[in-house]
Design goal:
Layout: H1 4-18, E1 23-26, H2 31-44, E2 48-54, H3 62-72, E3 76-81, H4 83-89, H5 96-118, E4 122-124, H6 129-137, H7 152-156, E5 159-161, H8 169-178, H9 204-226, E6 235-249, E7 252-265, E8 273-274, H10 279-292, E9 297-302
Parallel strand pairs: 1-2, 1-4, 2-3, 4-5, 7-9
Antiparallel strand pairs: 6-7, 7-8
Helix pairs in contact: 1-2, 1-8, 2-8, 9-10
The chain binds xanthosine-5'-monophosphate (XMP).
Xanthosine-5'-monophosphate binds near residues 131, 147, 190 and 235.
Length: about 325
């Protein structure tokens, strides 16, 4: 049985011994990076610099709330809005692995710049066990190049610190609860962000559709959970498909995009089963998306695939 109190104590002691210099962390505001930052902050205080990069592929209002969180945690932080750069880098790119590699590279470049300027010696990463296992870290195939694995330490000539490397998500959440972090129950969000929830080219316009649809899915599901109509899924979001279909808007023919709703139950993200969410909830989501996204989206589908054979994200 995992003991979060003990882990925190031991981890802070180890981190104090392990780190002897200025340290950088990429702060996404997710459970993993927030727990990491809180632990390392306990160990070394202001020697830690948290950096949040707004890639332009964040969810609605997300980067602003991440900045607030960094401030509230008393972190020494920097906020970088690099959305234009990321959009430019992904222009014309459709292949999922290329998208992941390009985003990973850009992150590395931006971090290198901060690391050089700040004379960084250590880099903290919120890698958890499923990340490196699925990125081919064991005797397995690379399923996807998870964005927070590999690349950084070799390029940056810094020592890598991974306090959560052997943990699974439920264990990280336990630590977050013990530390009283407001992100303990947040659903996971992938490093490449909405770019991998826009199938095909992730232009700013297409990303805006996925962002709004994700927001609607999150809001409606959270409302239903609050009302006791359903259990909270592990993850729930929307995906913009590269498929246009014929519909009718008012009394006119429409030819618009398709959005897939995805909601899954999982323990550790290694496997998942699709959530059997109540039809009235799907109904509300569908109506809201098509009402709010007007002529641009006119078809909503629900993903009923488990992992395996699917994965949680579509790319
Ligand atoms: P998949 O889609 O591989 O996702 O079944 C498993 C879990 O990992 C999340 N995910 C990522 N997390 N960087 C991350 O930190 C990534 O590049 C990444 N890709 C997927 C996904 O949302 C799910 O929770």
């Amino acid at each position: 049985m995992f003991n979060a109190d003990r882990f925190i104590k031991e981890s802070v002691t180890t981190l104090k011994q392990e780190i002897a210099g200025k340290t950088l962390i990429a702060f996404s505001g997710g459970v993993d990076s927030t727990v990491c930052a809180a632990l390392v902050n306990k160990a070394i205080g202001d020697q830690l610099i948290a950096v949040h990069i707004d890639t332009g592929y964040m969810r609605k209002g997300e980067s602003a709330s991440v900045e607030k969180l960094m401030r509230n945690l008393g972190l020494n932080y920097q906020f970088i809005d690099a959305s234009k750069e990321f959009y430019a880098a992904l222009k014309g790119v459709e292949d999922p692995e290329k998208k992941r590699k390009i985003i990973g590279e850009k992150f590395i470049r931006l971090f290198e710049q901060v690391a050089k300027k700040e004379n960084i010696d250590y880099l903290v990463q919120g890698t958890i066990a499923p990340d490196w296992i699925e990125s081919g870290g064991e005797l397995r195939d690379t399923i996807k190049s998870h964005h927070n694995v590999g690349g950084l330490p070799e390029r940056m000539d810094v020592k890598l610190v991974e306090p959560l490397r052997d943990l699974y998500k439920d264990e990280v959440r336990k630590i977050a609860r013990v530390l009283g972090l407001p992100v303990a129950e947040r659903q996971p969000f992938p490093g490449p962000g909405l770019s991998i929830r826009v199938i095909g080219e992730a232009t700013p316009e297409r990303t805006a559709l996925a962002r709004e649809a994700c927001h609607i899915v999150e809001t409606e599901i959270e409302k239903a959970v609050e009302k006791g109509e359903m259990e909270k899924p592990w993850q729930y979001f929307a995906v913009l498909l590269p498929v246009k279909t014929v519909g009718v808007h008012g009394d006119k023919r429409a030819y618009g995009h398709t959005i897939a709703i995805r909601a899954v139950h999982s323990i550790d993200a290694m496997t998942c089963s699709y959530s059997t969410i109540p039809h009235q909830v799907i109904d509300k989501i569908s109506t809201k998306i098509t009402n709010e996204l007007g002529t641009r989206v006119n078809r909503i589908v629900y993903d009923v695939t488990n992992k395996p054979p699917g994965t949680v994200e579509w790319e």
